[in-house]
Amino acid sequence: MSDITIDKPDIMLSVRDVFGIDSNLKVPAFSQRDSHVPDIDNAYQFNPEVTLAILAGFFRDRRVMVQGLHGTGKSTHIEQVAARLNWPCVRVNLDGHISRLDLVGKDTIVLRDGKQITQFQEGIVPWALRRPTALIFDEIDAGRPDVMFVIQRILERDGKFTLLDQNEVIEPHPQFRLFATSNTVGLGNSNGLYHGTQMVNQAQMDRWNIVTTLNYLPTNDEVKIVMARVPTLNDEQQVRSMIAVADMTRSSFAAGDISTLMSPRTVISWAENNEIFQDIAVAFRLSFLNKCDEAERPIIAEFFQRCFDQELTESWAHQAAKVMADGQL
Amino acid sequence: MANYEQFSDNSNYRDLSSEHANEQSPSPRTDKLQQQVEELCGATIRAVSGENNFRFRGRRPEVNGQSSGIRAPHLQPDLSKDDYQSFRGAADGIALRLQHSDAQLHQQLVPASAVGQIIFELLEQLRVESLVNPNHPGAKANLKHRYQQWCNDFSHSNMIENHIGLLVYTIAQVVWARLNRHGVSEATEDLIEPQRMMLAPHIGGYLLGLRNNPHHQQIYGEHALGIVKVIDEIVTAMIDESDDKNNDAISEAEAAVAGFSLILYPQANPDGQSASATEPSYRNEYNKLVKQLANYTVFSTSNDRVVAAEQLILPHQSKKLRAQQDQLIANQGVNVPRLARDLTKILAAPQRDGWQFGQEEGYIDAKRLTTLVTSPDFRQLFKTERYQPHNDCLVTFLIDNSGSMKHHISSIAMLVELMTKALELAGATSEILGFTTRAWQGGKPLKQWRARGSLANPGRLAELEHIIYKDADTPLKRARHQLVALLKPELFREGIDGEALLWAASRMQARPEPRKILIVLSDGCPMETATNQANEAGYLDNHLRQVCEMLEARGDIELYALGFGLDLSNYYRSNLALDLPEILENGVFKDILQLITKGR
Fold first, then answer.
1. Closest to B138 (Cβ–Cβ): which among A237, A295, A307?
2. What ipTM did this prediction achieve?
3. Which domain does B99 fall in, by range?
4. What pTM was computed for the model?
């Protein structure tokens, strides 16, 4: 882990220039890039509301949680903001097996001068606390609530962190920032989409200063993103039809007819697979249809027919031709 | 099958209700087909329009449990003669209508005359269809296909002989061509040319107005009303002209309306529009239903009884039928353990059950402390609470024992027995109930009613018989011999579904299981001759519908219906048309499980 050379933001950036948002805000940023600063993705489309929320997290030291359905680019959004501010960033993916020891640190046995000694090795939280770093907890609702109490204190501004094992109190670096992303709003897996998520303790939920929602984007933005991410794609009508299918799966999911939905990420991989296979139907099957329950595939084939005027092999129309008036005429 | 022959020996039980059921549904196959098509079309409509509460009920589109008010003639394709793309087109039409048309505004604008209503409805539908999303080329093709198919049917029917019918048709063609900027087909052009020539000077301005305002329902509607006015005048003139002759024109107008009305939804209720206007909360809905239910009266309950199945069958009969049924079940290709596993997946909820050892954190496991001493690096000395899936769930099967069910009962008995077996393996509780009447056509209450002077609206007149084949506390093993009472043909009389449902629901409410599922197996609507004759039409039907809606609104019991040869969507929200094969396959059970998964 390299150390960071400059300690505090030394330049001011205009939000209008950097993020294309209609605002006169200026935000502090670092002039030099560090190895922990994420790479800039020039195609990234910033959602104004979420961007402002994240920026508030950076320059006003707020604790920001970004909630939204999968594949909407929550973590990427934070990373891309950090990338443009040259703010070092560390992403931690939480899961049910992350324990207190992983976050805080543990005694390990090391060899020094040919002798075995125990030495305390800091976990990610104390490490990040001492540096001008943005710590991102991805999928915070996957972390076990009892373990997540570890971060309870640092969620408060100026909250000091006590390392019990070392008898040490860590004062957070003034440029330390904390972000989190989650699929649920901390109320558990209520719609059946997100297995393995936990109920977040409400006392902890309460400590997040800003909770912003990033759900699916307006069609035009999504078209731009897909076209930017897959540069070889030049048929905009086709992209619009692809997004029309995705939109139908989303509202159908909301109506409870199907149990899977297409995220922007799925649309992008569909577009990429279309480049490989040069067949929109095959690419659709490989990128989305095969992830769906078999019983739901005919419904999705209906959506595909609506948007492409083309039949998938899964379509019920093939069966209809045998049993309905079509075939008998 | 042997059993069928055995049952048909009792031909004195040939009854009304089976005929009734047959006349409503041509064959179970078509029903199943209809259901499949409606499921796919319904899903598409919900996805496109975003109207989550849309569904088909008895083939009519409904929003929020109320008629959607969509009545355009080309939106109801017929399974027996139309192809699948027509159904798709109709579905897309309905979706666009829900999306782009304000039902309330439409209702305000609708003209008074019958011919006018048809034209106005058609024009509004054509307007929304022209607004199809350009990113949905397939939907566009479907709509065009459906419309042309309808035109084709129309031009081959005798409606073209009818002047007024042709007039309406001409308007539809001209407007469609203008809105979509398509030409009409050559054959149609020849057909409508004279009408078009005659109408052109009168409606030209309105047509332009229609074409320029497809996005403004109000303005478009006003232009449409202009056209309606022109047509109304022509119709009146025709009637006046022929006044001295034998009222030709009037009958022609009536025929035209009837010709279109035939393909209108038969019972579409013009007042039932306000799906979006007054959206009652579920609670209000429930209270309203409870009030409605209170209007249902019973003439006399003194002859009703609830009876355990063992009282209905003699030991030697039961032994014989049991042997027969065992033989049949042995011949089935059903994998009961697998079914049980699948049921577990659907019904289970996690529950604390014992400990999980060898964890890296959790409670300290005293048994492993010695290990810690001997090898300090070893960290797996904790235990955590273990959660296991548990089926704390009650599934009640309510079997319709009305006369027509005799044809299916052997398969149904097997189906229910296998399901019960699997449920028991999966750890869920199950109950098997049945309902019929104790006598034919009213029995004692009817005689009492007559003796008291046959007052109007006496309410339900029959003697109910509610049968418990297996209650929740009896394991299947002990209930095996009672269960075969189901196969006794003498039992099957008439059926009053609504009250039976309430009875089953009240039994279920008394049980401690947190999840309750009620599966009704039926092949028809409620049928009791005496009650039907003595009360207004649809008395029992309405009651059943209200009971279902009430249970669905209340939500503590999940209600599912399996229909044999009849589309039950009229009554039940979650229903499945089952086509029972002679040998039960896993597929049948898969369908049922899917129904339960979806209904959650």
1. A307
2. 0.71
3. 27-266
4. 0.65
